[in-house]
Amino acid sequence: MIKYILLVVLLTSSLEGLKLHKKRTNFENVPKFKTLYTDQYLDHFNKRDDRTYKQRFLVNDEWFNPNDGPVFFYAGNEGDIESFWNNTGFMFDIAPVFQALVVFPEHRYYGESLPFGDSSFDQDKIGFLSVEQTMADYAVLLTKLQQDYNLCRKKNPIIAFGGSYGGILAAYMRYKYPNIVRGALAASAPIYLTAGLAPSTLFFQDVTNDFDKEPGCVPLVRQAFDAMENAAKQGDYKLLSEKFKLCEPISDAAGYKHLLLWMRNAFTIMAMVDYPYPASFLGDLPAWPVRFACQQLVNDTAKGVDILSSFKNLASILYNDTSKCFDIYEQFIECADPTSCGLGNDAKSWDYQACTELNTVQETNGVSDMFPVISYNEELREQYCLKTWGVKVRKEWPSIQFWGKHIKTATNIVFSNGLLDPWHNGGPLTNVSDSLVAVIIEDGAHHLDLRGSDPNDPQSVKIARYLEIEQIIKWIEEARKEPCEKF
Ligand SMILES: *[C@@H]1O[C@H](CO)[C@@H](O)[C@H](O)[C@H]1NC(C)=O
Ligand SMILES: *[C@@H]1O[C@H](CO)[C@@H](O)[C@H](O)[C@H]1NC(C)=O
Ligand SMILES: *[C@@H]1O[C@H](CO)[C@@H](O)[C@H](O)[C@H]1NC(C)=O
Ligand SMILES: *[C@@H]1O[C@H](CO)[C@@H](O)[C@H](O)[C@H]1NC(C)=O
């Protein structure tokens, strides 16, 4: 106990002190890692199929105390695992104090962990991508690590961390494998929304709310979308292509829809990563990008720049126009997830997941949000998914498999949410029980709490991290009371 009081003191002083001056945005102080690979069954659930694939994982054991140090496990989500390593500084701020082993496994079908290389995304190969298979990968790898490092199952407890879909996975790991994971920090994990249990207008309404905090912004955004609609109605695709400096001019309604989606996505991303300092997570963005974008829009129009050009300037805060034009098809991919599938191969895998287990049926109506009407519903999702992946959507399955809103029999999970994050209303915002704790970060965007501490951090995220550390300590203390059990 005394050790832990000391630990808390140490931790808070180290968080408030020297480490605050780390410059996370340039990755200058991102700790080193070893890149390792492990063989995993392609299909954990069909015992007649013994094919395997190579899963990548990153490890740091420089602070690890094998006697009773915990294992900090990041539940890799939809992307290159190195990018999550670079953007999850909170774990590295606290790992040395906890003397933890840090492990980041990569999610199958993302980054380098492609079971069939570039043909992994063929209809007959993609079927091994699922939440269940991924969790089984993690459970198997964590068990192997416990054996390799000769750990006690109890005295070296495994704590799961994750942000966004990674947060969902962290929570699910605790539901499904409590024998392996002692507790989970699920940051910005919209578990209800992705189970299809939220209204379809929720997400973009909350994107709008973020921009509505900036004076004069939303009316200008509406005016700009109206100007786009007017041009499109008159068939003036030439004007739009010129004003938006498109590399490949649009010439029809389909092209125009893509332009709208690309534009809407700029708002989505800026709202999600509305961090208090410049960051390179889903793009290279300035501090408080929502405020920056709004001020620039207000400034531009005040200077007499026409509304469409001002709007294009706003988009260029997020999107590159290095070749002096925008390739909207390169920069935004339309898919089953209107909140964005990301880019490249990762977007293909996420598209498939959005068709199978993660329901992100969200749409805009121009009333509860500031965007043009872009409808999306279960029927459209079904048509798209059948056509693209040959899968029939099973809408109820996520709630059956992962409990829907009936989560109170789970224990030891922190659900943290930032109120600037457009996903926050999709997850638990109140305490469910003594050990299912909700942490609210008033000035936090998408999993700000998982990022490394920064001099510009608002007070609310410092308090949130403190509450999270308290819970983690509780889980570890609980574990240490129990005898050592080896595998
Ligand atoms: C992570 O950061 C390192 C620098 O520490 C950088 O070289 C690398 O490109 C980054 N990786 C990703 C995927 O962002
Ligand atoms: C912008 O373009 C540069 C140079 O082509 C590239 O290195 C960078 O990754 C691009 N950034 C984004 C956010 O696409
Ligand atoms: C907008 O104009 C204000 C007042 O001139 C200035 O302080 C601010 O930096 C400008 N912001 C942007 C993003 O252009
Ligand atoms: C949940 O309970 C913890 C104490 O266990 C408290 O600090 C926190 O504020 C509560 N969360 C909410 C959203 O009320």
TrEMBL record:
<dbReference type="InterPro" id="IPR042269">
    <property type="entry name" value="Ser_carbopepase_S28_SKS"/>
</dbReference>
<dbReference type="GO" id="GO:0008239">
    <property type="term" value="F:dipeptidyl-peptidase activity"/>
</dbReference>
<dbReference type="InterPro" id="IPR008758">
    <property type="entry name" value="Peptidase_S28"/>
</dbReference>
<keyword id="KW-0645">Protease</keyword>
<dbReference type="GO" id="GO:0070008">
    <property type="term" value="F:serine-type exopeptidase activity"/>
</dbReference>
<dbReference type="InterPro" id="IPR029058">
    <property type="entry name" value="AB_hydrolase_fold"/>
</dbReference>
<protein>
    <submittedName>
        <fullName>Dipeptidyl peptidase 2-like</fullName>
    </submittedName>
</protein>
<dbReference type="GO" id="GO:0006508">
    <property type="term" value="P:proteolysis"/>
</dbReference>
<keyword id="KW-0378">Hydrolase</keyword>
<dbReference type="Pfam" id="PF05577">
    <property type="entry name" value="Peptidase_S28"/>
</dbReference>
<feature type="signal peptide">
    <location>
        <begin position="1"/>
        <end position="17"/>
    </location>
</feature>
<keyword id="KW-0325">Glycoprotein</keyword>
<comment type="similarity">
    <text>Belongs to the peptidase S28 family.</text>
</comment>
<keyword id="KW-0732">Signal</keyword>
